[in-house]
Specification:
mainly beta; 3 helices; 141 residues; two-stranded antiparallel ribbon; single chain; OB fold (Dihydrolipoamide Acetyltransferase, E2P)
């Protein structure tokens, strides 16, 4: 086995419009986010929304939490069970189409080159997770 560092060659791309328009924040602003690891224990189609899944999470608390996530076009509910994801745990809870959402699952999204801005079918969404098992509720920094 070589002690040489491994590098990955990438091709530079133009930043998405949304990446260009977001203002810089301070480190103190970043510290306001409570990012945590959570394990998906149950997922189902949201009963009142075409694009949402209703997801139950083990976030390390006794009760766990529920979030509504706009990932239905990219994930079947059953394939999410057991997946560990990164959540924003201190997002103010709100009702989304009649269901409480108590946080947000982080996901990366990108458009295919040349895709129209609102073309959902030409977008890819990837839920952010961890590369090895972590205790639910673990802090992400």
């Amino acid at each position: 086995m070589s002690d040489e560092p491994t590098t990955i060659e990438t091709t530079p791309t133009e930043p998405a419009a949304s990446e260009q328009s977001k203002p810089q924040i301070t480190y103190d602003d970043f510290l306001k986010l409570d990012l945590r690891v959570a394990t998906i224990t149950h997922a189902e189609v949201h009963p009142n929304a075409d694009r949402l899944l209703k997801v139950q999470l083990d976030d390390g608390s006794l009760a766990g939490r529920q979030v509504c996530a706009g990932i239905k076009a990219w994930y079947e509910p059953e394939e999410l069970i057991g997946k560990q994801v990164v959540i924003v745990a201190n997002l103010k809870p709100r009702k989304i189409r009649g269901e409480m959402s108590e946080g947000m699952i982080l996901a990366a999204s990108s458009k295919a080159p040349g895709a129209e801005e609102n073309a959902v079918e030409q977008e890819d969404v990837i839920v952010l997770g961890v590369d090895r098992p972590a205790r639910p509720g673990s802090s992400v920094s």
